[in-house]
Amino acid sequence: MKNDNRTKSKVPEYRINEEIRGVREVRIVGDNIESKVYPIAQALQIAEEHGVDLVEISPTAQPPVCRLIDYSKFLYQLKKKAKEQKAKQVKVNVKEIRFGPQTDDHDYNFKLKHARGFLEDGDKVKAYVFFRGRSILFKEQGEVLLLRFANDLEDCGKVEQMPVLEGKRMTIFIAPKKGGVSRAAKAEKQQSTAPAKPKEASEEEDGKKE
Asked: I need a labelling partner for 155 at 20 to 30 A (CA). Which of 13, 83, 102, 174 fits?
């Protein structure tokens, strides 16, 4: 049986070797060992003979399930699996769009175009109206602007949080719609469906001669 050099503070959820108490028998799984139920004393003896640890991986099963494995290797596998799962998680960026309470149509359309691109790329959009000084009197106007903004983006985004006034900022959050087509996918689709280029003039003339 391997020496136990771990500290309980790191992995308190797994009992190993002599820590597995209060059970009469366990089911063993592992490499080069028949998966079946053994008395706990025999299970510890088998672990000793194989030079590995007896790790309790499913304490609530009847009987508890234990694995024969070097405990440090077991921890490494757990950390590797957790790292892989974290890497698979989609990271969502939040892009900010700032407006004034009296934004003109040209500036509005420019920012609307950028927000649409962000959403199509899978990013969230945090749009806000910043009120300077007495412009806070136009907070209703700012709310209307943000709701209009969300409405104009409803084909590619959905409101995650309605306009909220915090201090001098009124903010709305818009998340990309699931199943939306990204800009890259659209470009690829357009390329695949583009009409074939006409033949060169010289090729057409050769065909006429024939």
From this structure: 102
Confidence of residue 204 (pLDDT cuts 50, 70, 90): very low
Q: Any residues with CB less than 8 A from the CB of 94 and at least 6 apart, and which?
A: 123, 124, 125, 126
| pLDDT tens sequence across 13-26 | 788 898 888 889 99
Residue with tokens 């959820």: 13
Classified as helix, coil or strand, 31 is coil
Q: Locate the domains of the chain by residue range.
A: 17-85, 94-181
Q: Is the pLDDT of residue 60 over 50?
A: yes
* DSSP letter, residue 167: T
Number of residues assigned to the chain: 210
> Bridge-partner residues for 80, per DSSP?
none
Question: Quick check: 97 pLDDT over 70?
Answer: yes
- pLDDT at residue 112, rounded to an integer: 94
Q: Which residues contact 73 (CB under 8 A, 6 or more apart)?
A: none
Q: Which CATH class is domain 94-181?
A: alpha beta
125 near 97, Cβ under 8 Å? yes
